[in-house]
Amino acid sequence: MVYGYYKRSGKPRCALKIDFMKACDTVKWSFLRTVMRVMGYPERFIALKEFYYHPKYQKIDLVNVSLADDMFLLSGANIESMSLIKKVLADFGKLSGLHPNLSKSSSYFAGVSDHQASDLSEILGILIYEHPVRYLGIPLTTKQLCTSDCRGLIKKIN
Length: 158
What we know:
Layout: E1 13-19, H1 23-26, H2 29-38, H3 43-46, E2 70-76, H4 79-96, E3 106-110, H5 114-124, E4 134-135, E5 138-139, H6 147-157
Helix pairs in contact: 4-5
């Protein structure tokens, strides 16, 4: 998935880590219930008024990985793609109540000049970060991970 993102040459590309503001506090539950119905969840599950933590994950406030408050997107690095992503995120926010937290989001560019990357990141209002691209604190790489790469995540889970 991230193969080639470390190379400066090649096709212009962008990786975006979008963090959502307090996802569980701001989600429109009617939107979530509609999505659950479309996905075929049982009605008795959809009707639950609250979610309970698995005892092992209660101290890190993890209900379900699919309810994580961030998203990872891969895109072409061009004005059209950045403009479309901005529009889709705004539309998604209106429908779901989930809005990007731009100060915690990050962008990574390859195959474009530093000046082009700066112009493209300005469209979204997201800061540019250097490699390695990290998701949930773990570097996304094609190389084998070592224990120290995952130490932060392991500590939170334990």
